[in-house]
Amino acid sequence: MPRLFFHELRSQQLLFWRNYEAAFFTFALPIIFLVLLGAVYGDSEIDGISGSTFLLAGMIGYAVASSAFAGLGITLVIRRESGVLKRVRGAPIPPAVHLSGVIASTLIVVAISVVVQVLIGHFAFDADWPSSPISFVVELLIGAAVFAALGLAITGLIKSQEGSSAVVNAIYLPMAFLSGAFFSTSSMPAFLEAIANVLPLTYLLRMLRGSFVEGDTIADHGTNIAVLLAWGVAGLIFALRRFRWEPQEA
Amino acid sequence: MSAVEVSGLRKSYGSDDVLHGIDLVIPEGEVFALLGPNGAGKTTTIEILEGYRERDDGDVAVLGVDPAKGDASFRARIGIVLQSSAVYPRLRVDQMMRLFAGYYPNPRDINELLELVGLADRIRDRVRTLSGGQKRRLDLALALVGDPELIFLDEPTTGFDPEARRRAWTTISDLRQLGKTILLTTHYLDEAHHLADRIAILRKGKIAAEGTPAELLSETELTEIRYRRDGEIVVVQTRTPTATLNELTSEAIAQGVELEGLEVRRPSLEDFYLNLVEDD
Predict the structure, then answer these.
(1) Could you tell me the residue ranges of all domains in chain A?
(2) ipTM of this model?
(3) Are A83 and A247 in contact (CB under 8 A)?
(4) Which domains does chain B have, with CATH numbers?
(5) How confident is the model over A69-84, as pLDDT tens digits?
(6) Is residue B146 less than 8 Å (CB to CB) from chain A?
(7) Scanning every residue of chain B, which has its alpha carbon at the shortest distance from the alpha carbon of A11?
(8) Which residues have CB under 8 Å from B29's CB, separation 6+?
């Protein structure tokens, strides 16, 4: 089983980096935003922390949602509709091992993205280091797992290859804005704030922003983790019921 | 032991009855063709045997395993060519082959397989640059990569030009030489006739006829005798062609006339098939 898993993981890495468009949107774009916006407001102060640290945490959260939710969801719908998932289902790799390999590959992409961003943030824009690296990593793992569950779930709502990126982008781009990945939400009108208070990325960002504050650990984020896990469990239950291996478009 | 044993197989989608009681036995090493018009239930049948679909009723054993409960070790013993091609377009042909080879416990040599299906010269090319027929051959190579005992081919040559079809036939005949059991579906009668040891004709969810090509032909015992008389074509169908022909020719000789355009022919498999499915 470990042999199959690592074979799948290696294959999925090859597939990811071969897919230049997806790699651009989910891997490169958050890093590009970090550099561009860092140059714009890196030196200011936002919500009580430095602009560059605020932005760094925001773009890390954005990268998690981009890779684990949007990238994963779109990729799986395209593979399902083109019959590749059906073919994989006919091969002697257990479905759970295949999906674990796909998700683990996504986590590797997220991990590389985070390392690159933390280094760029610190050395180019003077952003802080995460105060507790272990808490920071665990928080990221929770966030990525939750968004991966939601990425699996969203495939159950999309019936066609053409619709996949439209539907996914229509969900996660507004989510990124409302949750405050790019700018402070402190002056947002109440109704937008009400929406933001439901979105999972809001809670991941609160936790990540906290993790750059001196003395903050994962123990300070019980509520954020609870809300995220609730989203993750809901996504997983929906995915278990609605995930399909065969093309859905007639 | 038979490679495939099916009895009383039934399947419906909602109120749409697709299969009403199919019985099939395919011995090991046989090439078996499932023929039938579109919508007759060929793909439903083959996908139940592959383990993709659940059946409503009946007993099914594929390599001694119930495919609805087949696990990875069952899937390691079968090879599947689905009706439509499914590939990762951005990989190279060899990468695609290695990716799937890695799923199987005892994969075959990739170069050898690509040689077998005639893709050896495309090994370093991206899958997306292959033509439709070449993708289909890659599908076949992928189905064979685990060195399966039983191979399912759902319309493997649809859309091929005649030369590509001949090549695919050669490949499939080679597999038979290796002792593989093959179940294929096709619309092409010549394909079934050329490749299959036995043929079943599926019509409206039932097997309408089954046997070797020769047996199917002998089921219609009629022979057709045609000739022209006074410019009109006369067709006589008979179970006793020798006697009938003797009668006709003796009469003609006695009258001193020639039976113009005289022709005696056995019905072809195509006649038999079209006759069987004509009211569909």
Answers:
(1) 2-242
(2) 0.91
(3) yes
(4) 27-44+71-212 (3.40.50.300), 220-277 (no CATH)
(5) 999 999 999 999 999 9
(6) yes
(7) B99
(8) B3, B176, B179, B180, B181
